[in-house]
Amino acid sequence: MAVAHVHFDPLGGVAGDMFLAALLDAFPEHAEGTFAAMRAAGLPDRWQTRLLRHDDGILSGHRVLIEAPADEPDASPGHFREIRESLRAAPLRPAVRDRAIAIFAELARAEARVHGVPVEEVHFHELADWDSVADVVGAACLIEALGAQSFSSAPLPQGSGRIATAHGALPVPAPATALLLEGLAVFDDGIPGERVTPTGAAILRHLAVRPQLPSGAWRLAGTGIGFGSRRLPGISNALRALAYEPAATGRVDDRVAVIAFEVDDQSPEELALGLDALRALDGVLDVIQLPAFGKKGRLATQVQVLARPERLDEAIARCFAETTTIGLRWRIEARAVLAREQIALATRDGQLVVKRVARPDGARTAKAEIEPLRTAPGGHAGRSKRRRDAEAQALEKERDDRRE
């Protein structure tokens, strides 16, 4: 199923385990892969991971339990740099690893501002136990598995009161959580306590959630309800997820970050290598270069980078690192895209990746990625034939899937 957008209703609030439970309630087929990613990130074998049916007398859904053995304490809290290096060394899919690190980086930046220390020196107290690491890695795995292009959330319950932390009693929302929630809609429903955890806030921040479903025609493809561990008075402590796919028009409206700059003092060879490195960055959608004339008629290269809004900072940093530009422009633009999915096909020439697209008139098209064919024998004519064969095979496979 091609999920294009996910909307969250934080009835009880948002926490890492509630995020996992809501999406796994809607898409239980991803449970095995999600728990496997947690193990790959280092979750000890003796820890239990379970997806459990739950009914609080009002609603029914699922809970995610990540439990240590009774005789084994949680892992000691660690520094952000230690968690980052551990994830880099873990046998995770690169996209999942990068998302998990990006979520922890959101937390680290907020904690650094609160405590006045460099990001590299941030020491997680309540957030470095194995269950928190598993929540973040599991969330990254699910986000990648669903492939949604955008996310939104209804206003978040702010909560009230105080919570006990390693730094003493702190107000709700906790200072780091409050920083992560900047720019998001919140409200007070009169129920005290911590309603949005730092992990939950970091995930929403990473996803760059908007306040509502994007414009356009949609079809509700799945719903899920994920419960937290607390009991709230008169209301379910649950997070609801609504997953949408494009309606028959095949169109999806979302946002894209556009970065633009000019280079006139870098050799073509070096610039080509730098732009290849930009294209390889997770979250960068495309890199375009055009000839331009700068001051004094000097020949220059204009570069335009399209990136996911949540990866804007990383894309800007890579632009400065890989090119000689000393200034750039960026903006967030609305865009309309057609629903698409990538499938891997086993052919006699090896595994090929094909992109299938739903057109507004109901037609389907397929395009095989050229890179796997780059070194294939047979020259241009042979590559073209293999590409056409793979595209026809992808469309035939889709027709077979529909008949089933």
Average of the residue pLDDT scores: 86
Main sheet properties: 4 strands, mixed
Structural category: alpha+beta
Estimate the strand proportion: 25-35%
What does this entry show, briefly?
This protein is of the alpha+beta class and 404 residues long. The chain contains ten helices and 17 strands.
Walk me through the structure.
This protein is an alpha+beta fold. It folds into 3 domains: 5-249, no CATH class; 260-338, 2-Layer Sandwich (Alpha-Beta Plaits), CATH 3.30.70; 340-403, no CATH class. 33% of the residues lie in helices and 30% in strands. It has 10 helices and 17 strands. α1 packs parallel to α5 (130-146), α2 (31-40) crosses α5 and α8 packs antiparallel against α9. The longest helix is centred in the C-terminal third of the chain and has 25 residues, at 379-403. The chain is globular and about 65 Å long.
List the helices and strands and how they pair.
Elements: E1 5-9, H1 16-26, H2 31-40, E2 48-55, E3 60-67, H3 80-89, H4 94-115, H5 130-146, E4 150-153, E5 156-157, E6 162-165, E7 168-171, H6 175-180, E8 186-187, H7 198-207, E9 218-227, E10 238-246, E11 251-263, H8 268-279, E12 284-293, E13 299-307, H9 312-322, E14 329-338, E15 340-347, E16 350-358, E17 364-368, H10 379-403
Parallel strand pairs: 1-4, 5-8
Antiparallel strand pairs: 1-10, 2-3, 6-7, 9-10, 11-13, 11-14, 12-13, 15-16, 16-17
Helix pairs in contact: 1-5, 2-5, 3-4, 4-5, 4-7, 8-9
